[in-house]
Backbone:
């Protein structure tokens, strides 16, 4: 599958904390007319095992704050003009005095009437003066091959709109991956356990093994020991952002010993045992 160039506008975040700082405007001082950046938005997506391995294009529906079309993001009712805040006289700050046993303390505080902007206005009916409205949008998300549970995709500027000309936040898509009943993932490798009979392990055989590419023949060499791991090169997970690089599928061979033998089988095994003893005796000579 050709995933194309996903570096733009999607950046994959490997660091856990990167991008967590975009809490635009939270706790910030609302100084006069200061632009406030929009907050980042988060979205969880669940992929099946193969979608995470090979990548997928998904349409997702996100809800975030967008600039209000009625007031063009200003928050003021169209046709009205902002006026100087009467509480703070346009300063954006008020001084409050508190009398304590130690004397009178003065504290400078952000004006609560105008939120520190120094202006008041008739609020827009659509957004109640915020300048932003909550809207739902469908966006097409390109998930690159090789993502894993906990991977985060960053979609620039698709978060919440800013206020007073602030830039929009980013959208972070957090990936969860459903497990596969037989294939286990270990980073870029895929782990699988196969069972072969002791006879096949001794004589060698070819078995069919499930892989993310479908059923693939795997040669079990003669004399394979129990718990041997066979490597199916490049049948693993594509390496993120590195085209044509793939991990391996590691197949652990479980050798099955029969619990019951037919009388004929038992006779043959006993003959084999005698033969084996004879061999040992010969080699000791
Ligand atoms: Zn509005
Ligand atoms: Zn004010």
Residues:
């Amino acid at each position: 599958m050709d995933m194309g160039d996903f570096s733009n506008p999607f950046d994959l975040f490997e660091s856990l904390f990167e991008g967590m700082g975009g809490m635009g405007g939270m706790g910030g001082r609302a100084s006069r007319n200061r632009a406030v950046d929009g907050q980042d938005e988060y979205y969880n997506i669940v992929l099946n095992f193969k979608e995470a391995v090979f990548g997928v294009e998904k349409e997702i529906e996100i809800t975030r704050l967008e600039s209000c079309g009625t007031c063009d993001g200003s928050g003021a009712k169209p046709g009205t003009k902002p006026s100087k805040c009467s509480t703070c006289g346009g300063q954006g700050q008020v001084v409050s005095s508190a009398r304590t046993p130690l004397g009178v303390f003065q504290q400078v505080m952000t004006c609560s009437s105008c939120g520190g902007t120094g202006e008041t206005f008739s609020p827009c009916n659509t957004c109640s003066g915020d300048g932003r409205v909550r809207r739902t949008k469908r966006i097409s998300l390109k998930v690159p091959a090789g993502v894993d549970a906990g991977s985060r995709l960053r979609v620039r500027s698709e978060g919440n709109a800013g206020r007073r000309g602030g830039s929009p936040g980013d959208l972070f898509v957090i990936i969860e991956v459903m497990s596969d009943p037989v294939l286990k993932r270990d980073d870029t490798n895929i782990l699988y356990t196969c069972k072969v009979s002791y006879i096949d392990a001794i004589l060698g055989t070819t078995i069919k093994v499930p892989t993310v590419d479908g059923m693939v023949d795997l040669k079990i060499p003669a004399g394979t020991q129990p718990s041997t791991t066979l490597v199916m090169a490049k049948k693993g997970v594509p390496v993120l952002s590195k085209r044509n690089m793939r991990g391996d599928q590691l197949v652990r061979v479980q050798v099955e010993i029969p619990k019951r033998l037919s009388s004929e089988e038992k006779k043959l095994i006993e003959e084999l045992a005698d033969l084996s003893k004879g061999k040992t005796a010969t080699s000791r000579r």
